[in-house]
Amino acid sequence: MITLKAVIVEDSRLARNELKELIKTHQEIELLGEAENVDDGFKLINETKPDLLFLDINMPEKDGFELLEMLDDVPITIFTTAFDEYAIKSFEYNAFDYLLKPINQKRFSKSIEKVIENATKDPEIKISEDESKEDVLNLDKQIFIKDGEKCWLVKIQDITLFEIVGNYTRVFFENNKPLIYKSLAQIEEKLPPEVFFRANRQQIINIHHVKKVISWFNGKLKIEMQSGEEIEISRRQSYLFKEQLSF
């Protein structure tokens, strides 16, 4: 049986208690803890590494979206909100689901069934008591990216390229190129090295999204990504790239 390790981040004690009572009716969920604000929630999530997050959107000081932005690895997220406009907006953030307060038992059960069904159908989603919780992110893990008013929850495997832009890093996925305030070195520490390759000082590529490899000047290689970007690999990194791909 799949076990979902869950945490609650919600500023209302009444709402937290309501969620805990609903969780008790589902043996598939193991509640690891609860927090009443974003900073405590951030600490709790990093300590417990949950599979599932029940997250209030509208909290004082920092809201739920800011919490997601702080996390390197975002759990499956179910938003909880008392406001319809937030519920509608959550779909723009690729939330797994949302629950409108006061939470209906039937609606809650449907949401949990949806999580379990998705985990069962998708072999890349691994939810179990023995799941590895290492620092390096698995390809199926998702990160939260916020750029201005736009936000995304993106799987690591869908990111094609990271590129330095001043003090920021541009993230390429689908047709999007948002900026995040993290250094390339910080990002590289979390990426699986067998898939993400440091092409040069400015860029890291996802080798699963490479379309063509071209021999270039002075022993260098030029990479054409499936999305159309062309990346020049430094001479030293070209040697390592050939070695990694064994050609």
TrEMBL record:
Record has rRNA processing as a keyword: no
Give a yes or no for keyword Phosphoprotein in this entry: yes
Question: What protein is this chain from?
Answer: LytR/AlgR family response regulator transcription factor
Q: Report the SMART domains cross-referenced here.
A: LytTR, REC
Sequence positions bearing 4-aspartylphosphate? 56
Database matches in InterPro entries: CheY-like_superfamily (IPR011006), LytR-like (IPR046947), LytTR_DNA-bd_dom (IPR007492), Sig_transdc_resp-reg_receiver (IPR001789)
Q: Which Pfam families match?
A: LytTR (PF04397), Response_reg (PF00072)
Write the record's keywords in alphabetical order, separated by commas: Phosphoprotein
Q: Which Gene3D superfamilies match?
A: 3.40.50.2300, LytTr DNA-binding domain
The record places domain HTH LytTR-type at 143-247
- Residues of the Response regulatory domain: 5-116
